[in-house]
Amino acid sequence: MTTKQTPIHSGFGPQTTARDVIGNRRLDGLIAIVTGGYAGVGLETTRALAGAGATVIVPARSLDKAHKALTGIDRVEIESLDLIDPKSIDDFSARFLATERPVHILINNAGIMATPFVRDARGLESQLATNHIGHFQLTMRLWPALLKANGARVVALSSRGHARAGIDFDDPNFERRPYDKWVAYGQSKTATALFALALDTRGEAHGVRAFSVHPGAVITDLMRSMSEEEVAAAIARSRNIGAFKNTEQGAATSVWCATNSQLDGMGGVYCEDCDIAEAVPADFAEQRGVRPWAMDPGFAERLWTVSEAWTGAGLRTHFQ
After folding, report:
1. For 55-91, how does the pLDDT look when each residue is reduced to its tens digit (9 = 90+)?
2. C-alpha to C-alpha distance for 128 and 56, rounded to whole angstroms
3. One of 38, 179, 185, 270 is an active-site residue; which one?
4. Does residue 38 have an active-site annotation?
5. By three-state DSSP, how is residue 40 classified?
6. 292 Cβ partners below 8 Å, 6+ apart?
7. Burial letters for 182-216: b for 16+ Cβ neighbours within 10 Å, e otherwise?
8. Is the dihedral angle over the CA atoms 241, 259, 47, 31 positive or is it negative?
């Protein structure tokens, strides 16, 4: 299998911050949407983009929390969106499309991790539903606005957690196998990487490029479903291997993928530490790189097909 997963030696690294990535570049006139852009890595992503002049729309499940976090940041618009609710996704998208504005940057940042077993209204396991399917539907609905940008980038937040599991196409929603919250999380993050790969294949000819991102090991509210013991163990592991980042550093790779000219003409790759990640074998022992199941074009196409079926959303109507 050929792969585009070749590091370009960007000159940035694990300690790079989102503001470092942007540098003196101005983003005036650009419209960005950052899901979950009011907490943790998402908040720092919003700050960096807005600070460089972009208008940032932040769709939020908790409007009160979003207003408190984003007070004082210029050029930010807060909207209502719940990624596990299909109607909420469609309503948000319809409201945005009615403004007739383009989307130059779409960062699918929001997510959940290691949650108890819950299904959404469609019967989908909640981590897969939130982390992948909700963003799939959102991106499909916003496609006309992405095309209108005449050069857009979509960034899908994956994770090193993708190394835990590929997609179980025979039982993605744990209807027959025992539920494992970490396997479910890994599956959902593999899904986001595969989504970026398949979207880039479709978008390249239309000026829409897509990337998936591992932000790094960052302490955020994403850990809210973990026990104190699990959180402490995760922090200890990250510190032992020197992988721990603050939120400014955690936002850097998303912002790099969304704005940096080093990636002009590229797409469909998994990135970490502000560079294209190395393709590594399935049994690779180090905590870096992208595993084979998260960059397989065949898996990406298969996931795209089932995602269309689950959501009733796709790009075919836009291309007809």
Report:
1. 999 999 999 999 999 999 999 999 999 999 999 999 9
2. 26
3. 185
4. no
5. helix
6. 1, 279, 281, 282
7. ebbbbbbbbbbbbbbbbbbbbbeebebbbbbbbbb
8. negative
